[in-house]
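User: Please go through the entry that follows and flag anything odd:
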Amino acid sequence: MNNVPRETIKENPSIEGFSGIKVFDLKDYFLTQENFSIYKDDRTGVHFTYPQPLNDLSRYYESENYISHTDGKKSLFEKIYQIAKQYNLNQKLKLIRETTQGKSILDYGCGAGDFLQHMKLNGFQVMGMEPNDKAREISQSKIGKDYVVNCELKEINRKFDIITLWHVLEHIPNLNEIVNELKNHLNPNGTLIIAVPNHLSYDASYYGQQWAAYDVPRHLWHFNPESLKSYFNNFGMKIENISPMKLDAFYVSLLSEKYRGNSFPYFKAFCVGLQSNFKASKTGQFSSLIYTIKVKN
């Protein structure tokens, strides 16, 4: 479908208990060019994609260009991505060492397994969950077949000191159920670490509907610091620390420039990413943010 039938569009749709008013229309620039809308939840401020094609969601990931599921290093873009990924791995390790004391980690939606491999090499006990067959096989080749699974979270009969979701939360269809399960799988004083795009960043406002981090319909949910705080408050959890992912501004701007049809997007994307990080150094509204979350005492 190139257009969502008008009869499926509701003025105040309700999904997973979220309901509110439309913010704007946009489309899937990455793959199908299909039309979707962004709505804002009245209660939490969380934005959500509508409609959500949950019965057919897998086909929106069926592309060799979906980098998070591969180790591709062929194109210049893939090479840049892999260099940035190694920098981010070191930053994630540093953050975890500074904000937690535990050693057991569950990476929910572990992709190609680079984070788990990095943590294992640095003395952590690791486990990953990954539904994508190709990504799971790559991950298993790095850390062992028994340590990366494809199952329901409720089927795992153990708890962890740290649970991480690196750009995963925004993809989860049954969001409320999974967040509740994540909370239940934390050890006492355990830490939930979540990285998600921030639609209040400068690069988001600059690119508008063509901001690549909206990534509809793969991204079902869209957060900012206040809406995420409000959302997790409903689960008796609080945000203790917020850290930036500064390279994401450049990566997202590069994709956004491609969506705009820029045949040589690198210089422009670099400038927008630089400006976004500069503005965020004063406001805190970086393109992507990492949230350290704990259960309230």
